[in-house]
Amino acid sequence: MTESQIQIKLGPLGWLRWTWRQLTSMTTALWLLLLLGLAAIPGSILPQRSASLIRVNDFKENNPRLFEIYDQLGLFDVFSSFWFTAIYILLMISLAGCIVPRIKVHTKNLFEPIQTAPENLESQLAYKTFEANLSLTEIDKIAKKAGWRTKLNQADDSLTIEKGYSRETGNLLFHIAILFLTIAVGFSALLNYRGTILLIEENSFANTLTQYDDFRGGSFFNVESMPEFSFRLDNFEVEFERGPNQTGSPREFIADLTVTEETSSYQKTVIVNNPLVIDGTKAFLTGHGYAPEIRVYDDRDKLVFDNAVPFLPQDASFSSSGVVKIPDTTAQLGLLGLFLPTGVLDPELGPISVFPDLDNPLIFFSAWTGDLGMDTGIAQNVYRLETDGLTQIGLAQLAVGDRWELENGYAVEFVAVKRFASFQISYDPGRTWAFLASILAMVGLMYGLFVTRRRIWMRVILESNSQSKIEIAGFTKQSEEQLNRDIKSLINKVKARE
Amino acid sequence: MEIGNLSNLFVYATILILLLALITYSVALGGGEKAPKNENIGTAFSWLAFAVLFVAVVLRGISSQRVPWGNMYEFAITSSLAILGSFLFISLKKEIKYLGVFVILPTVLLLGLAVTVLYTEAGPLVPALRSGWLVVHVAAAIISYGAFSVNFALSTIILLRGRLIFSRIPKSERLDELAYRTALFAFPIWTFSVIAGAIWAENAWGRYWGWDPKETWALITWLIYAAYLHARATRGWSGKKSAAIAVTAYASIVFNFFGVNLWITGLHSYAGV
Ligand code: HEM
What we know:
Largest sheet of chain A: 7 strands, antiparallel
Radius of gyration of chain B: 19 Å
Strand content of chain A: 25-35%
Largest interface: A-B, 52 and 50 residues
Bound molecules: protoporphyrin IX containing FE
Oligomer: heterodimer
Shape of chain A: elongated
Number of strands of chain B: 0
Number of helices of chain A: 10
Number of domains of chain A: 4
Number of helices of chain B: 8
């Protein structure tokens, strides 16, 4: 029959069944596994929105045309794209469709009696014969004691013994656990939230939506369910390598917090790898930087700005950039700053930082006036100053304590330097389930991989008054060595009993 | 002499010894009466190289006062040790000396790159890497890489079979079986490494999985090896088809080490170069 003839004969139900059988076949599973791996590749090479919006925007600026095409294809959100999701959902359906019948067959096997020995043992694996003066009934007892499932067949004087069912049990456990892992991760993605904050020393954070710099909640996340707590960053300590090797590498970050929950207040030290945990919500220390304290006076020497301003680190030596905006004045004033914790003026490179710690803190400011656009009501990036349309009215280098008089009568003071720490705060209800599922997967895998399923047959072929000659052979799809070892040990046990 | 420098000296010595092993193994591949003897000499050199590299790795650990797998250079030398170790360990039980060239050549290349491109002075770790999980996560990865490397060597031969004919190399079915066993050993260890990595990421960055390039490629490797183990149980897929999947899986490991560390930026920037 040709293929087209088969197709004619299949009704709708037949088609469904055919599709189902294809989907749950080993070959399909294999292809889906490979396809999923392939589909993940663009997500590792192109910047992803979920990881870094900034790098996605960079890509957009550098390749606007390509960006359009890629974005249509979902290449900047690979792991939530429809095609990636489709592949893994197909894989999960295939997996479920594959294990359900296997569970049925396996449970049946576990309770059903063992098949009797085939007629011709000689053609089976590891065939040999041995002499014994024990009867098969006695050998049966020995095998049972050694943990084998056995079946004695009086009719043809044969004995079948089996071991290694846990291989299939383990394999099934593994596949079920993988299914659960995926479900746990999927549910978690719907219910979780994750946000980042930047906290300057001696400032506090309260766990409400508005206090986050960046916040992502799953589709079913409920803002009201956020636990109430706050913490103050009392002190933040950093230590950098000062030796000749890996100079400037970070060696230690320590954040001392005062945490306040509903009724209690306590001290907590947070370091990398050791988060603050409250009610399933965790706060992780993820980064740090400097926040110079800046004061600005207007032309009547009135203090119009007095704040520690976080400057974002740009490189490993913590050259950092930041912006000060003063809106409430006749001509709005903007300061564009470069902060250098250990500043030097390199003849070729200009102002650079040569070490990440505060050995010689310097700020290079340029001052701008004009309409900063702060009255438009449109939310602005606080780390950015659009200088188009502004007029530059001065450049200066300031050390701590320096005061800079601007030509419009304003003055800028660099008072001191504070540190800030960044935290990632996350809540992930599927975490524990995912963890449990992966432990089960591991256990199942070990069973599935290291247990050999094997079957051994024995049949008496020659019987004299006390000695009988017994043939023995076996079958396994996995380790023939294991089979050989089992047969040897069985014969040894029989001999030992004689 | 400083301990770190002593370690470097031992690494150079290892490369020299491995080159000798490579020569004798290559000669043996040609066949002839002396082939078994040459293979034995090659294996003796390999054992020597293993011992010398072992000392180098231990000295490196002493000089940096921590486990010797904190940056790309250390990862490369320790992985080389694991590759040699896997090969030699299996050769104690099975006749696989014919694999010599296919194992030693990549090892020498890796060590060569380690001392030239990847070299970093010994020193303490950045805070994010200082965790008990580093020890188990990376140790598991290195051990499984060792076994996957032997799987790669076997798979390469299976693919080359028919094109190149070496009298020393056994039948395809035996190679196939052996390759399968090495992957079977390595896969759970790799799985464990990925899980341990996720736990560590949870502790360090507040999420157990974030599709960081390094994580993504670890998963890609895992998926391809899972496909490989499936292929072995799927009719019509053993032999060259399986071997092709195994080689692809290994390529993803190599890419994860070189490509991701040196080319793609992510959180796992521990290259130190
Ligand atoms: C997420 C998807 C899957 C993953 C990660 C996966 C992974 C694995 C791994 C690692 C093994 C080898 C371990 C062992 O032999 O015990 C294996 C074996 C097996 N898998 Fe899967 N699998 C998946 C889906 C499926 C599907 C959809 C099917 C059904 C078509 C399937 C059927 C099997 C079978 C029958 C074996 C046993 C092979 C043997 O006896 O060697 N798997 N799987």
